[in-house]
Specification:
This protein has 208 residues and is α+β, with helices and mostly antiparallel strands. It is built from 4 helices and 7 strands, in the order ββββαββααβα. Helix 1 crosses helix 2 and helix 1 runs antiparallel to helix 3. The chain starts with 8 loop residues before the first strand and ends in a 13-residue tail after the last helix.
Length: 208
């Protein structure tokens, strides 16, 4: 499945009068600065994460510990971008099984899940993300801002301690892409897009 402009919107083109702190399902895409391939490479149609890619995946797993009102659905870390579906609790998921656990049992996703779970155990204590008084309790924008900040700090540590590839000023592009998932059909379409992303890498808009 090639990149579909219908399911990608820049943050700067948000839906008019839509409250991005409300409950629902959101499809998020974040690109590395200049679309540099910092997080690994595609091998035989599967994503092979390097240490930086594992770090990004682990930071993704930490998000529900920092923002206790969210759950994580399908995701994939690609060489130069990240796709993920975030469920803000408050109303039932639109998914048929009413759960937010990846339904696919593909070798690639199982391998990524096992690796992330194993490497993440006991690594560090994660505390809830502080929400300043008078602000929204964890809007999607704030969640992405925190994710970028934590991954950037960890990446800088990797550069200093483990000689990771250096980045130019910023690890991530300033904006991100988002789409509000409103029904089952939209969810299935986006879920397939995420799961098939490594297989379709050379056809991907972000290929480079």
């Amino acid at each position: 499945m090639k990149y579909d402009s219908k399911i990608h919107k820049r943050k700067s083109i948000q839906l008019k009068n839509y409250d991005y702190s409300q409950a629902g399902l959101y499809f998020i895409t974040i690109c590395s600065q200049n679309r540099e391939c910092f997080f690994g490479n595609i091998e035989n149609g599967e994503m092979s994460l390097n240490d930086a890619g594992h770090m990004v995946s682990n930071q993704r797993l930490d998000l529900p510990k920092r923002f206790e009102h969210i759950e994580l659905c399908e995701y994939v870390v690609m060489p130069n971008h990240f796709h993920g579906i975030i469920h803000r609790r408050g109303e039932p998921c639109v998914r048929p099984d009413n759960s937010c656990v990846r339904p696919d049992n593909s070798r690639q996703h199982q391998k990524m899940a096992n690796t992330c779970t194993t490497e993440h155990k006991g690594e560090h204590k994660v505390r809830p993300y502080p929400i300043p008084n008078g602000t929204s309790d964890g809007s999607i924008g704030r969640i992405i801002q925190a994710f970028k900040s934590f991954t950037t700090n960890e990446y800088i540590r990797g550069v200093k301690q483990n000689n990771w590839r250096r980045f130019d000023k910023k690890l991530w592009q300033r904006n991100y892409y988002e789409h509000v998932i409103r029904d089952n059909e939209s969810y299935r379409h986006i879920s397939e897009y995420i799961q098939n992303n490594p297989l379709k890498w050379r056809e991907d808009k972000y290929y480079g």
